[in-house]
Amino acid sequence: MDKSKVEKINIMAIKKRKAYELEIIDLAFGGRGLAKPDGFPVFIDRCVPGDVVFVKITKKKKSWAEGKLIKILKESPLRKEAKCLYCNFCGGCKWQQIGYDLQLEYKKRHVQESIEHIGGLKNILVKDVIPSDPIFEYRNKMEFSCSSKRWLLPWELDDQEIKKGFGIGLHVPGIFDKVIDIKQCEIMPNLGNQILEDVRTFIKKSDLPAYHLRSHEGFWRFLMLRHSVAFDTWMVNIVTQEKKIDVVQDLAAVLSQKYPQIKSIVNNIIDSKSGVATDIEEITLHGENYIKEKLGKFIFKISANSFFQTNTRSCEKLYSKVSEYAALTGKEMVMDLYSGTGTIPIWLSDQAKMVNGIEIVQSAVVDAKFNTRLNKIENCEFFEGDIKDVLPRLKSKPDVMIIDPPRVGMHKDVVRQVLLMGPEKIVYVSCNPATLARDLEMLTPKYETCEIQPIDMFPHTYHIESVALLLKR
Ligand SMILES: C[S@@+](CC[C@H](N)C(=O)[O-])C[C@H]1O[C@@H](n2cnc3c(N)ncnc32)[C@H](O)[C@@H]1O
């Protein structure tokens, strides 16, 4: 029998809903374990290379399959004990069972492979990942969802004492209307867990139900916590479906009396089914409607809905790399696309003649302008709007362009405009190696990618930030 026939028969042997014993040989895109029985790729979440696992096939396509981990039959020597109680269930960080050094190796390879396979770019230098320090309690922002139905952990199923009702925490991947009732999140500074517990107790005692994602009824939606590393202060955003000032004001009083570190409590009212409404009404319940953070020598005001990099210490390393790659002399005109709260323009302000930022979120632009005044900076200007509309209207041509888009990368019209403007140098910051690779390839006709520096902002997840230096050919 020839080889292709053997493979075909074996591929056919993998069937949906059947369970198999498989050995994990690698980690694939998206951080999932990869098994290859007879060369046929099967992807399984929460596995470590070297594990032998019992897996139920949940999806079968022509050239690959997905499976659900049922049992670990033999643990890989690379497997580490996770710090987090929920790590086998929560969608937050799925890589806690992998040692940090190994996480960094896989992240670097993920960037290299994306550049080669998606971007088709060969021989690009991808440097070793700059690690995060610390690797726990590093996230400065967490958003916990409220649910009228909590997801029960396996050891809670038979416990009659445990109520199935209200929960506040993070989702189990694929189960959108239930949340794990998180008591301790290891990637957020610990005081956040105490605040979370007090909010949980208050909500349980209130007579108001959690918002239900199917019926679209209920009151409590999310709890967003932000922490300022430099000042060790907190912002609490209580997100509700409707306005009930008396109720949220009582919760704010409980929190502000107990925690002097909380400098801002706001109530965002989101009356939309998707939960990503653009028309958010915001009411300040305690202190200011923002908190301050420091990056290097600069201070930043951050509002509840403005983007701010989620790992403050790694963010400083990221911006230092941006400065190094931009290598400004003080004479350049710099343009920062996707400028958020103005952090990169302000960081670069004393190295350039002028820095312009473009950003779509109005509150972020308001913060960016406030931040320039706060830092007594006069050579930064910000434009509000969609980059693809704003960029063609700008008259001045930048010498250096910084591009830091969201996960989806750049709109192809923006790529076209960047190619037309033709700055001498581009520093591209990306949180998604796949769209980084795609965009670098689109810029290739005019720009050579010189090197890429990955920086870890997200320990225990497969996510990785990268900075790429591009020079005009
Ligand atoms: C990854 S963040 C970068 C922010 C900033 N550079 C920083 O380091 O904090 C991407 C930013 O792009 C903004 N954005 C997304 N789509 C946009 C668009 N089409 N036009 C302008 N800004 C956009 C988002 O609101 C967000 O602030």
Offer a concise description of the structure.
The protein is an alpha/beta fold and 473 residues long.
Task: Explain what this protein looks like in three dimensions.
This protein has 473 residues and is α/β, with parallel strands linked by helices. The protein has three domains: 72 residues, Nucleic acid-binding proteins (OB fold (Dihydrolipoamide Acetyltransferase, E2P)); 196 residues, Rossmann fold (3-Layer(aba) Sandwich); 155 residues, OB fold (Dihydrolipoamide Acetyltransferase, E2P) (Beta Barrel), CATH 2.40.50.1070. It contains ten helices and 23 strands. The termini are far apart. The N terminus is likely disordered. Bound molecules: S-adenosylmethionine (SAM). The site of S-adenosylmethionine has 18 residues, from helix 6 and strand 18.
Please give the number of β-strands. Answer: 23
Mean pLDDT: 93
CATH class of the largest domain: Alpha Beta
Q: How many domain regions?
A: 3
Query: Quick one: CATH superfamily of the largest domain?
Result: Vaccinia Virus protein VP39
Strand order in space, largest sheet: 6-22-23-21-20-17-18-19
- By CATH, the topology of the largest domain is Rossmann fold
Helix content: 10-25%
Strand residue percentage: 25-35%
N-to-C terminal Cα separation, in Å? Answer: 53 Å
CATH architecture of the largest domain: 3-Layer(aba) Sandwich
**What is the 3D shape?**
globular
Secondary structure tally, helices: 10
Major sheet, described briefly?
8 strands, mixed
